[in-house]
Amino acid sequence: MTVSSEAPLLFDQPPPNPAGGRTLIVDAAGSKAFVRPSEALLQAGPDDLVFVRPGTYEDKIFIADRPVTLIGAGRDAVQIFNRRGGPLYLQRVPSGRISGITFRYVGSDQHSAVNVFDSSCTISHCRAADGILSGVVLYGPECRVAFIDNEVRGNRESGIFVFGGACPRVADNLCVGNHHFGLAVRDPGTHPEFIRNTCRENYLSGMLLFCEAQALLLDNVCRDNHHWGVVMTPDCVTTPARGDLSKSNDLASNPRGPLQVTETPLSEIGR
């Protein structure tokens, strides 16, 4: 295994399969391997690992109601893109891991790069880019996904958007250069853990909470965004309490200040 400064993991060979099943190989060159990740996943059982060798793949991955282990050679080495919809859609995935892949949406309709509905797997060391909506959407009352150490950049709305009652763990991610917010939370019953994320150079604020959302906010860094570090509506609840957020998170170095509480957090984009 070699290590790149840009991607935390870069695999030359498939890692061991902890479940003990088969390892299915995806290779863009096609040398006695699957040529698309979706083809390998159709053949994979619940204990199998799908390993994606370096390359650029035009594909759409849809996984529902089963575990998944999908490992790429590294997010700088493997890119999966789609023109007609988000390249990754998970629905009620109960367990497993996805890592080491860049997901890009390159179409013109309203889609995100990564969609996760009511799932509880782990997504780590990936990249989500170029979504027309938010780059990553985590939603549904049974969504308990662990979204760890990913890079989310250059999406047309927010980087990571949590809504619809989801309660994921979102930690150690970099959300940079998104057109709205780095992290956004909406809806009653939605209660993510945001821990050690970095939100910088987003074109509104680092984080947004609105519409009765709740969130745990600890050790996050929101710097050099175009508005505030955190903006929220008065009906939202944070842990720690609102008055202590600047002590538990780095919200300095944003031009409008560390924190703003307002009834109209989206007024500057006409909503």
From TrEMBL:
Pfam families: Beta_helix (PF13229). It comes from Nitrospira tepida. Coiled coil: none annotated. This is Beta_helix domain-containing protein. GO terms for biological process: ubiquitin-dependent protein catabolic process. Keywords: Repeat. Residues 97-230 form the Right handed beta helix domain. The keyword Repeat applies. SUPFAM superfamilies: Pectin lyase-like (SSF51126). Residues 243-271 are annotated as: Disordered.
